[in-house]
Amino acid sequence: MAATSSASMDMGGMNMGGGCKISMTWNWYTIDACFIADTWRITSSGMFAGSCIGVILLVIVLEGLRPVSREYDALLVRKRKSTIAAGPVARSGSDSGSDQGKSAAIAQTSTAPTPGRSFKPTLAEQMVRATLHMLQFAVAYFVMLLAMYFNGYIIICILIGAFIGAFAFSWQSMAMPGEDLEIAFCCG
User: Fold this and answer.
1) Cα–Cα separations (whole angstroms), residue 51 to 36, 79, 133
2) In this model, does residue 106 exceed pLDDT 70?
């Protein structure tokens, strides 16, 4: 019984039957380490290197999703501002002087967005915003699950991915104090 018990334990970790090394303490496992599921079992150095590269890319994607979401919100605001700048469409025709024409013009301008006021996105716009949020949440949760394996190499890869992603995607103009500057998240 003692031999079975010691065979299932490996350097403070657990050997999960299929050869997976899992530890709830800091570890540097490479071969036979498992992540997320027993099907993601590292069987070679090349597979571990590929997993490390994949983790780096996953975190870069997470860092890229954040500005995409902010840029989409900025696009909606710019779109709304251009709608406001265009102003209400003037009605033409013989009924513009009548009571019916005036009430139609009032109805038209009362539903139009007004400057300086907040607005709610349309259903389709909100669906896109919610999808972007869901993707950020899912990728961040997946990265958190990977970090919970306490594998030093994977955590270093997460940090490398965060650095590369922040370097690449948070490169933007910043306003100085007192400057009323609209910050564009992309391309300028």
Assistant:
1) 12, 41, 25
2) no
Instruction: Tell me if 54 sits within 8 A of 34, measured CB to CB.
Output: no
SS3 annotation, 59-79: HHHHHHHHHHHHHHHHHHHHH
d(CA 32, CA 43): 6
Beta partners for 41?
34
Q: What's residue 65's pLDDT?
A: 97
Which amino acid is residue 91, in one-letter code? R
Distance (Å, whole) CA 90 – CA 97: 12
Amino acid at 82: S
Asked whether 66 and 136 are in contact (CB, 8 A), the reply is: yes
Q: Which helix (H) or strand (E) holds 168?
A: helix 152-169
50 vs 31: CA distance, rounded Å: 13
Give the CA radius of gyration of the chain. Answer: 28
> What residue type is assigned to position 175 of the chain?
A
Sequence letter at residue 71: E
pLDDT score at 7: 41
| Three-point CA angle 125, 57, 173, nearest 5° | 60
Which tokens go with 116? 């300086």
The domain segmentation of the chain, as residue ranges, is 2-85+120-169
Residue 135 reports pLDDT greater than 80: yes
